């Protein structure tokens, strides 16, 4: 075992007190080579401790670097993780439930984008489920911003809704290899277009659920009226019925037209909630992000904080959420040498030595 001075100690009760503290810790540990111990895992959740979803993330990160792990069992509230060198290769994971494939990938995203090797991930589980990153948002918004550091690709072969899951995705990452450029997402953008995907299972095709979500969202987004809005419809055969919509706005930097930003928003269908209401909810959420005038929406910010911590730079988000504060908490423990300036107006700046 390494000397205790090398270990990062984390408290799962900090900030939002959920699974994101563990996922971000796994990513930082694999990339930095620093072992960590976390106590009070998911202390602020109705069922504290590790759930099967989180165990798959731990084991995915452990496979990536040959880590030694203790405490990796359902219900465990304490875990230790000692990483080894990052290993290239193909990784296949079947969560077996509707556990989120994108949250699992979040646990390894930092090291596979910023690390030294190429990896391919095939993951089966939930692609569009509550309290997680929708698959289309993951591809169109998050990976769009990560491609500055790596060649990344994402394929959605099959959607998986709650409760059966059964979704199937493939993610590839090949780091560019050059020293990473600092993240700069604090400029001013001009809205040039809005895009999206309204999706539903084949069970709901006859009720035109996806079309109704799209039509209501497009009507709500026609502000200003001269900005193109394009939302495609996607029906798939799925193990469980479900529906949802993901929207994103493309902005062009006013000082450098070659630079683009993307803001996103989404909504999931619910039993008893009209499809039109779901579409409007997503549209209103996207319009709120645009009205804030930031370069990163509130959900993107907490996902980008680890990359910001590693590269330095700045980003401006619409709101500093509890999830963002949890991400900041973990980053500070692993990279204590970095200097942070977090302002209530949403501007986060990191200076690396």
Task: Walk me through this protein's architecture.
The structure is a single chain. This protein starts with 7 loop residues before the first strand and ends with a strand. Helix content is 32%, strand content 29%. Strand 12 (243-253) and strand 13 form a beta hairpin. The protein is an alpha/beta fold and 353 residues long. The strands form four sheets. A four-stranded mixed β-sheet has the order 1-2-4-3, with helices on one face. A four-stranded mixed β-sheet has the order 5-6-8-7, with helices on one face. It has a four-stranded mixed β-sheet with strand order 9-14-16-15. Helix 2 runs parallel beside helix 3 (101-114). It folds into two domains: 4-184 and 297-345, RNA 3'-terminal phosphate cyclase domain (UDP-n-acetylglucosamine1-carboxyvinyl-transferase, Chain), CATH 3.65.10.20; 187-292, RNA 3'-terminal phosphate cyclase, insert domain (Dihydrodipicolinate Reductase, domain 2). The longest helix has 18 residues, at 275-292. The chain is built from eight helices and 16 strands.
